[in-house]
Design brief:
- The protein is an alpha+beta fold.
- The chain has a domain of about 100 residues: Aminopeptidase.
- A seven-stranded mixed β-sheet has the order 2-3-4-5-6-1-7, sandwiched between helices.
């Protein structure tokens, strides 16, 4: 079982954008239909079947920032952020379809969310990830926080 940690990005805006394959376009994804998001949630293991989708549209519409990586009309990766709209944001639900992983697509959607948050004045950006993803996030200037810990209710 993996554990999680609080990750901080004080200098994310200074990071150079990762190169992604030709044909991949990073853009806002808030209006992407649930049926098109479904393969991402299934592939990530966040839902077990196609009937378990009621909350996905609400989650997409309720995000402060939501970017996707599109290959043609197909969404192949995504990242979201929740925020108070004033000073802080939390990145979550970052995933890329398995067949598209290892191509810097995850980094680019996270960078797009960070840039969007920063353009709206958000300068305190955090995320929680499984420990095996720390290396991935460190490549986008995130670091394990020595000042904060994740506290889970009912764990």
């Amino acid at each position: 079982m993996s554990t999680s940690c609080d990750i901080d990005s004080p200098h994310a805006h200074a990071h150079a954008k990762a190169e992604i394959p030709h044909g991949i376009v990073i853009k806002r994804a808030v209006d992407t239909p649930v049926a098109e998001l479904l393969p991402l949630y299934l592939d990530a293991g966040w839902i077990e079947n196609e009937n378990d989708i009621g909350w996905i549209e609400k989650s997409a519409k309720g995000c402060f920032s939501f970017y996707g990586a599109f290959y043609g009309d197909r969404i192949v990766g995504m990242a979201k952020a929740l925020s108070d709209g004033v000073s802080s944001a939390y990145i979550h639900e970052v995933t890329v379809l398995k067949e598209f992983r290892g191509k810097k697509i995850g980094q680019r959607v996270v960078e797009a969310v960070i840039a969007d948050c920063e353009s709206k004045g958000i300068d305190w950006i955090r995320l929680v990830c499984d420990t095996e993803l720390i290396k991935f996030y460190s490549e986008i200037d995130f670091a394990v926080s020595n000042e904060h810990v994740m506290v889970i209710r009912g764990a």
